[in-house]
Amino acid sequence: MLTVHHLQNSQSERIPWLCEELEIPYNLKLYHWQQDPLIAPASLRALTPMQASPVITDGELTLSESGAIVEYIIHKYGSGRLALPPSHPDYAHYLHWFHFANGGLQSAMSGLYRVVVTDVDPEYPIYKLAANAVRKVLAHVEVRVGEATWLAGEEFTAADVMNFWSLTGMRTFVPLDLSGYPNILAYMERIGNRNAYKTAMEKGDRGRESCIGGPPPKVFAGLGKIYEVFL
């Protein structure tokens, strides 16, 4: 059976949520962040060369990279559900937003995270560049979810699954206030009301502070020491 290796409070929340949306059976193996310094546990890091989450195992297969995992599950176990075919009028929107998740939104958030966690002076050009990149991607999302119910259009898809973590849990690493983005806030509420999302959060991240809403959630402890491991 498909096993989802989920590092709690991480972008791997996409995978159990996807499985719940598709209503497919899966085993969920939970991992907790190692504190001081903040790092994924060795048992999870040992699964793939990149030492990162998410990871799935399926028989003899071990697969990482959330986009690849989402596509694998959709097409192997979900009969293509939550993906749009080329014949669909919103196919191009689906492709754009599916890949925007890691190529645009999460990339910008991670860039800001790196300058925040290494205590770069906010007046330095690199900090301003990182902050501006986040403003640009958030503005792009704000416009889209103001003109459409979901990112691909009027149909909920894997593009929503891919992007949502960056607007919610990622803010425990980058304390952004989204109060100035009313369309994003309404979009977050729509996601938060989905039964599959609620079930996935209950199974995979029970007890985590809600990250849905404008004010940023509490910042993860131990962030200042994470680079002691990698640098």
From TrEMBL:
Identification of the protein by name: Glutathione S-transferase
Q: What superkingdom heads the lineage? A: Eukaryota
Belongs to which family? Belongs to the GST superfamily.
- Which SUPFAM superfamilies does the UniProt entry name for this protein? GST C-terminal domain-like, Thioredoxin-like
Any Pfam family matching the protein: GST_N_3
- Gene3D superfamilies (UniProt xref): 1.20.1050.10, Glutaredoxin
Ranges for domain GST N-terminal come to 1-81
* PANTHER family given in the database record: GLUTATHIONE S-TRANSFERASE 1, GLUTATHIONE S-TRANSFERASE-RELATED
InterPro entries associated with the record: Glutathione-S-Trfase_C-like, Glutathione-S-Trfase_C_sf, Glutathione_S-Trfase, Glutathione_S-Trfase_N, GST_C, Thioredoxin-like_sf
Q: Where is the GST C-terminal domain?
A: 87-220
